[in-house]
Amino acid sequence: MTVVISVGGSIIAPDGVDTQFVRGFSAVVRNYVAVAGNRMILICGGGAPARRYQQAYREIAAQPADAEQDHIGIAATRLNAALLHAALADCTSEPLVTRPDSISSFDGPVLLAGGWKPGFSTDYVAVTLAEACGAATVINLSNIDQVYSADPRVDRSAVPLHSVSWSDFQQLVGTEWVPGANLPFDPIATRRAAELGLTVIAAGKDLANLEKILSGRPFFGTTIGTTIGAEG
Fold first, then answer.
1. pLDDT at position 226, please?
2. Number of structural domains, the chain?
3. Residue 232: inside a domain, yes or no?
């Protein structure tokens, strides 16, 4: 089975690179693809490097442009993806993907990608590659363990959601992409995932929890698009 995992830059490089997480995550990937027929597609976000350089650009540029901010963020995602690609060199025979629209299949057990082009987040890359390679589920790992009914940083009444429909989730994240936005799943990717009927599982960085997801056991997180999967 092919599984797509969108690995948030916030857990690869929350400040500096979290080498302990990268090492542990790589071990989980190796264990999964060691089973005959299992393959993984991994897409990396930009994390702190993306936000810092985008902020610097906004301070420096006379007229900051969204497209330029996106280009800076894309460079950071590819840096993180290059690191994970090197860490998993024994599991992949494919170069780092920079054009997900050119992929319809891949050799070997693991495929890695970073960002694509302005206007599209790595969440959208994950959805694009899931569609191209026939994966039904995208696992979205970030520094947020569950999706909330509202932003808990500004709304004290926000509650965690164990499952949520695509229509309700779209209302939570909106409909427009903003470079550097910190959302559980980006609005454009949300719309496309809903159209394709994909299931997205939003979970945190706990690797034992990820192993539960991969093995089909009850897990802690939020299932988007279906009501089956997450623990109560």
1. 59
2. 1
3. no
